[in-house]
Amino acid sequence: MNAFSRTAATFVGIAVPGVLIAVTAFVAPLPSGSGARGPEQVRLPAAATTAVCPGPLDRDDEAAGTDEEFESSEAPTTVARAVSISTTAPDGSEGAAGVEARVVDGDTLFTIDPGEPIVTGADGMGAPVAYLGTPAGESPALLSAVQTAAADTGDYAGLAALSCTTPLTRAVFSGASTMTGDDSRLLLANPTDAPVTVRVDLTGESGPIPVAGQDTLTLQPHTLRTVVLGALAEGVPVVGAEVTAEDGSVTAALQHSRRDGLTPRGIEYAAPEAPAATRTVLPIATEGEARLRVSNPGGSAVTARLGAHSADGPEPLASGSVAIPARGTAEVELGEVAPGDVVVEADGEVSASATVAVDTEEGRDVAFYPGVDEVGDTRLLTLPTDEHGTPLEGDLVLAAGEGAVDVVPVGGDGQRGEPRTLDLDAERAIVLGLTDFGEARALELRGTAGEAYATVGVRTDAGVSGIGFPAPPEGIGYRDVRLER
């Protein structure tokens, strides 16, 4: 089933009277403060931040079957919240990005001007929503949005949280399956003003998976489209999906649900995995039975060694290595894991994700944990809430490593609390309960030294979910130009 929606995006053009400006290269945005620039560069304003929340669980009711007495449950209640906090511009001034929220049909839900920090309510969602963070002057737009779906009973019992996704040109998901009872689908949105051609490639345990029908589609401007992977390759237990935006950028998330007959076996969203590398770190914040998926984009088979850490130190895994075919995806059981991390070290570049399953009163639920990028300078994560706006219980996990991280709680008024400096340990992960941060509505991480990797896991009686820190904001930048009169 395909679903379409419309969202909003804002883009800035530059014109100088009497001068033709031809862009020849891009220079990465500079951090706060001053920096040298060439004599033929144009200074760009701070970039807006776009976060797309795909909305309520996308369901294919037509797939329920021919049993006239079969009635699929309603989609779980879904809420979204956005947080925008102040940042510092190169001239030393401070301001928080404004927030505009639009629903799929283009209607504006609300607009808040730039200036003061913003924490929205836990708004009920009936459709996909795009949040646009508009910078306050040259202060980077540090905006984060999260959506949370939860149901205690029914076909879709479980908990699924997602840090709403930002545009990119390539996304990889290793945790899909199209076996009977499994429903995996890509949620792709085009927040730009021009059509974008998207290619979807599938990989499996023997290499590339032939796709039924066309492997490309066109996303029209400001639309969201669902790609049901079972329609592309039916009955495949291990599926990796690679999304490539060939002439633009899109947002992407993987939605997965599973049922065993009438017993729910979990609902979850997955964010894109960190780009393929020879070393991949997967922080995990849920205790339970774990499986690891590893995807190999290269043309030669790859072998990867596996390691793990908990707060108590190095942990044994049920499997210590995995072989991945060329252009393939492999799965391996890890056994019971505690909150901490899994490290994949390969002789070629790979990407990876882990799923952790737990028993619930209704059946089972799963949490997805993709490999993540290092924290870097600053990242902001809005914490998932219940339908009443109360933050969920859970844990913040920092993988074993070297260096230090500042964790800054953000309160309901958008103001930062006292930072907490955590020194990383190369042999132990750090696991902290979210209740350690009081009534925080968001967490800001600042990598002060070394390489840090982090994630958050949340839990309720309905189930569990993993949620990663979104990409950092872009500050001001420069473009090289050629001046012609």
Explain this structure:
The chain has 485 residues and is mostly beta strands. The protein contains one helix and 38 strands. It has one helix at residues 229-232; strands at 20-27, 41-44, 49-53, 77-88, 94-96, 98-103, 108-112, 118-119, 123-124, 129-134, 142-151, 158-163, 170-176, 182-190, 196-204, 207-209, 216-219, 223-228, 239-245, 251-260, 263-270, 277-284, 288-296, 302-310, 313-314, 321-324, 328-337, 340-359, 364-370, 379-382, 393-398, 403-410, 420-423, 430-433, 442-450, 454-459, 464-467, 477-484. Strands 22, 23, 24, 25, 26, 27, 28 and 29 form an eight-stranded antiparallel β-sheet that branches. Strand 15 and strand 16 (207-209) form a beta hairpin. Mean pLDDT is 87; it is low at 1-36 and 62-71.
Q: What's the arrangement of secondary structure elements?
A:
Elements: E1 20-27, E2 41-44, E3 49-53, E4 77-88, E5 94-96, E6 98-103, E7 108-112, E8 118-119, E9 123-124, E10 129-134, E11 142-151, E12 158-163, E13 170-176, E14 182-190, E15 196-204, E16 207-209, E17 216-219, E18 223-228, H1 229-232, E19 239-245, E20 251-260, E21 263-270, E22 277-284, E23 288-296, E24 302-310, E25 313-314, E26 321-324, E27 328-337, E28 340-359, E29 364-370, E30 379-382, E31 393-398, E32 403-410, E33 420-423, E34 430-433, E35 442-450, E36 454-459, E37 464-467, E38 477-484
Antiparallel strand pairs: 1-38, 2-38, 3-10, 4-5, 4-8, 4-9, 4-11, 6-7, 6-10, 11-12, 13-19, 14-18, 14-20, 15-16, 15-17, 15-19, 20-21, 22-28, 23-27, 23-28, 24-25, 24-26, 24-28, 28-29, 30-35, 31-34, 31-36, 32-33, 32-35, 36-37
